[in-house]
Automatic annotation (TrEMBL):
It comes from Streptomyces ambofaciens. Residues 4-130 form the Glyoxalase/fosfomycin resistance/dioxygenase domain. The lineage of its organism: Bacteria, Bacillati, Actinomycetota, Actinomycetes, Kitasatosporales. This is 3-demethylubiquinone-9 3-methyltransferase. InterPro entries: Glyas_Bleomycin-R_OHBP_Dase, Glyas_Fos-R_dOase_dom, PhnB-like. It holds the Pfam family Glyoxalase.
């Protein structure tokens, strides 16, 4: 298997909803494993997601899970998920879906470096950056 770099997101009990939302945005195959399926069937977290992975037709991989029992959920602003490429229609489509119901901090528009770029936070509090470059020929 080739090495890969991808974000891993932590949630406070709504990982299933978040990961299903991202599946709707990007398409692909979503695998969700609960704490209950891995030895915690009698716990209050049995239906929470222990590990989720979305693999998309575009080659994206997104992983996420609910915080495990005993660990505190502390959202932060030390990360963002970056989407970049030159397929304008595809990237604008992702932008529209991700920003719907969330907040836009930088509108998706041409920037000083020549690319179209925007930043938003989706309805689950996850920050996203979208960069659309010129197609290379």
């Amino acid at each position: 298997m080739t090495s890969r770099l991808n974000p891993y997101l932590s949630f406070d009990g709504d990982a299933r909803q978040a990961m299903e939302f991202y599946e709707q945005v990007f398409g692909g195959t979503l695998a969700l494993n609960t704490f209950g399926a891995f030895g915690m069937a009698d716990s209050p977290q049995a239906d929470n997601i222990m590990h989720g992975m979305l693999q998309t037709p575009s080659g994206f991989t997104l992983m996420g899970a609910d915080m495990p029992p005993g660990e505190e959920y502390r959202p932060g602003n030390t990360f963002a998920v970056s989407l970049s490429g030159d397929d304008e229609a595809e990237l604008r489509g992702y932008w529209e879906k991700l920003s719907a119901g969330g907040s836009v901090t930088v509108p998706l528009e041409k920037q000083m470096w020549g690319d179209v770029f925007g930043m938003c936070t989706d309805r689950f509090g996850v920050p996203w950056m979208v960069n659309i470059g010129e197609p290379t020929s």
